[in-house]
Structure formats: C-alpha cells, structure tokens
Amino acid sequence: MATGATDNKRPAAASERADERRSQIVAAARELYERNGLSRTSVQDITNEVGVARSLFYHYFPDKDAVTSAVLDDMIDDYIEALTYWNAERQVGHVNDALASVVKLLRVGLFESNSFHTALATAENAALYLEFVNRVAHHTAIYIIDTTVQDYGKLHEVRIEHLYETFYVLILGVIGYLRNHPDADDAVIADVIAQTLHMDRF
Questions:
Q1: Residue 91, by phi and psi: left (phi above 0), alpha (psi -120 to 50) or beta?
Q2: 5, 17, 29, 99: most buried, per Cβ within 10 A?
C-alpha cells in the first residue's frame, strides 16, 4: 500500500520538476530578450543563463521560435494579471474613471520600453508582432466579456451585438493606433472606446 502511494507521487514530482525547468528556460529567454533584444539572443545564450545543456533546451522546445512563443504567452499572462487587478480596483458605475485607467494600463502593458518590445515593433519581426497583438486581443476580449461587461450590464444596457468580435477588432485598432500615434491623447482614446461600444458614461 505504501509502495503504491510512493510510486504515484514520483510521476507527479517529476512533472512538477519538468514544469519548473521549462518555466526557468522561458523566464531566462524573456529576460535576455528584454535586456539584449530578440535577434541578439541565441539558444546558447538562453542555456548559459539557465545553466543547462542545449540538449535539455531541445527536450522542451524544438527551436528558438517555440520558446519565443512561450515568452509571448508569459507576457500576455502578466498583462491579463494587471487587467484583473484593474477590474478588481475599479469602482462600479464610474465608467469614465475605468476608461481612463484602462487606456493607461494598455499603454504600460503593451508599450513598455525594453529591447524585446522594440524588437517586436521592427519590420523584421512583423509576423511575430502580429501574432502577439492577436493573442492580446483574443485573451483581453474574453476576459473583459466574462467580467467587466457582466458588471456593466447590471447597471446599463449593453447595446452591441457580436461582443467578442467587437472587442477583438476594437483592441487591435487601439493597439495599432497607439503604436503609430504614441502621443495620442488618452481622453480621445477613451472617447473612441466608449463610442464604439455605445457606452453610457454618465
């Protein structure tokens, strides 16, 4: 009986160690990307940072593109965590304040000044950047619909159809506009969001 219980624990422990090692590789890649940039970071640099053999890297990731994709997921997780905090802190019924603060959050979360964000914005990495913003739009739209929209609907009429599609397109549009117009007034962006979603602001 005791032996069976011990045997059951071994696969779970091994799985936890594997998850931890994979997370360490992703964290190292992200740190190097943010410090040195995407093109100036090699698989060897990542394995040196973690202190593992290249063969172990390839046990978890087939190539650098795969670990880069995992880094994007990690960045999006951080953004959704920040969005969760914003959602918990906003005051119900204070639509204008919520709009102003979410625009600021978008700027900070998606346009941080580091080598990786700079590299993502170059023509060389256009496909990777597009993948990144598409993932952001997808996860943000789902989160907002499942939380903030539900709260808003308790006090106001939700006057848009195709919720997911509307939020997805809106998020992509705002990201693209801010990327090309970094000095845009936050109040204007908030107005665009409110008008697109037909929100009651007062």
A1: beta
A2: 29
Among 14-23, 29-38, 75-84, 127-136, whose mean pLDDT is lowest? 14-23
- CA dist list (Å): 13 to 1, 9, 19, 155, 193: 19, 6, 10, 48, 47
Which DSSP category does 123 fall into?
A: G
**Cβ proximity of 84 and 109 under 8 Å:** no
Distance CA 200, CA 202 (A): 6
Q: At what angle do helices 2-36 and 64-89 cross, to 10 degrees?
A: 90
Give, rounded to a whole angstrom, the gap between the first and last alpha carbons of the chain: 66
Are the CB atoms for 153 and 198 separated by under 8 Å?
Answer: no
* Helices then strands, each counted (H, E), the chain: 10, 0
Tens-place pLDDT, residues 159-172: 999 999 999 999 99
Instruction: Say how far apart CA 169 and CA 134 lie, in whole Å.
Output: 10
- DSSP code for 156: S
